[in-house]
Design brief:
It comes from Chryseobacterium joostei. This protein is mostly beta strands and about 550 residues long. The chain contains four helices and 48 strands.
Amino acid sequence: MKIFSKLIVAICLITTIITQAQNNYPQNYFRNPLNIPMQLAANFGAVRANHFHMGLDLRTNSQENLSVVAAADGYVSRIKVERYGFGNAVYITHPNGYTTVYAHLNKYFDKLDEYVKERQYKEEKWEQDITFQPDQFPVTKGQLIALSGNTGGSAGPHLHFEIRNTKTEECLNPLLFGFAIPDSVAPIISGLYWYDRRFSTYEPGANGVSVKKAGSTYTADIVRVNSPTISFGIKAVDKANQGFNLGIYQAELLMDGKLIYGFSIDKVSYDDTRYLNGCIDYTKFIRDKIGIQHLSELPGMKLQNYSIPNLSGIINLQDEDIHNIEIVLKDVKGNTSRLITKVQFNKEGGRVSSTAKAVLPNDGKTIASENAEIGFSKNAVYDAVNFNMYEKPDADAASNAIVLNSPYIPVHDNYTLKIRPNRKLTKEEKDKTVISLNYGSDTDVVKGKWNGDQADGQFNRLGTAKLIVDNSLPSVSSGWKDGAVINGGTLLLKGNTKIGDIVSFRAELDGKWLRFARIKNDFIYVFDEKCPKGSGEHTLKVTTVNTAGNTNTQTFTFQR
């Protein structure tokens, strides 16, 4: 009976927290930014690669160019135009202390679009980040501000929508502002995991426990552990009524009726969003595509306003008795799922070796091999990492390949990597040297900065690095033959590089700068008054520069 009473008290406490969070924000002040019902493709706090999802992804029925309207009165305070990230975005500042953000847009409303275009031509620069005064572009609630799209780091047509605290720029959970989005589906639990917390959560890693659903409750067989100090992780999604896998809003962990850990995702700043890597089993997420959220604190996880203060989630089993475990998951609407199980400590030993090269949270460290050195800040890791660094020959590179532990272990901030070449390089070769870091799913390439006989670079992923002398030229390829008549509405150029990226692109039409938008590796010009139909033959000169600094100029001709 006492355990039941404690459980009721804990649940009431969490319910109070939800209610207070919702009451702290104005309800129904902001309207739906689309003129179709709000349907979620992703919610605030959903797990992404190296960051929390910072807003709502609103479905646009797989279409582009839907009307996007101001969620409330205010003024356009900022716009961004960028290749990745938000693509084209509008920021509206409101008089009640909040700013709304609308991203992945195709086009701004006419007056704003004209202003941005003039700025781009004046500066001869497509990417922009412009701020405005309150009297430049005032807007009213429901006013058209843009057309939806699929620009920037978008994988399909949708509208990304955020609400921020104007003063702190923290992103707030929009679902706490009273939007009418039906949701009667409780979170779905599909896995339970435990970790031996005498050691790092990375080594030996997660131990899976089967979960089954019994009526409205999830259960798992008794969890027998061989460590007196453990923590739990949960694999779960929130389906809402939409069918998409949404992120978990709130979780609580109770042992013998006592609350020992809890988190809720109410607000996060972009400065802190990478702490997501300390809230999940990063190895499982990157290597196995399995999303497990820790129900405990990692020593290097410093995200504010996430977990309940003074509750670590670390379980110290002082005996071999059977203890009751309950995990409670909730969405913003209060729909609740529970997992009930038991845990017992069996004294059967179990050890994990450590090395002298352990990188510890809150303690910077430099590690060196024969020809390389890596320097970590005190904020680099979320949990202890037994760092394994070694070299192996690479016939195609200007250095040995430097293996930096594993791409399945996260780092929080940039580290500095120094590599010596495997032969003496000329000044010209040094000028063309890049550092390539392969982390399995992709490769980051940066220009090497020479410091004596070492090339330096900064990265925030682990993997295998090497020096490459890159003499290759970047290029673009057109979809038309020189001199062809172009009757369509756009010119498309596809970017090509052997190593690294195209870091600079400039197009001139008959000697004058022409505005091409960049969508990932494509460059697109939409025909306008700069090149109208019937204007005859034109010469397009395109200059590209790659990461190594190699420059290529190409000339194309066409007719309109």
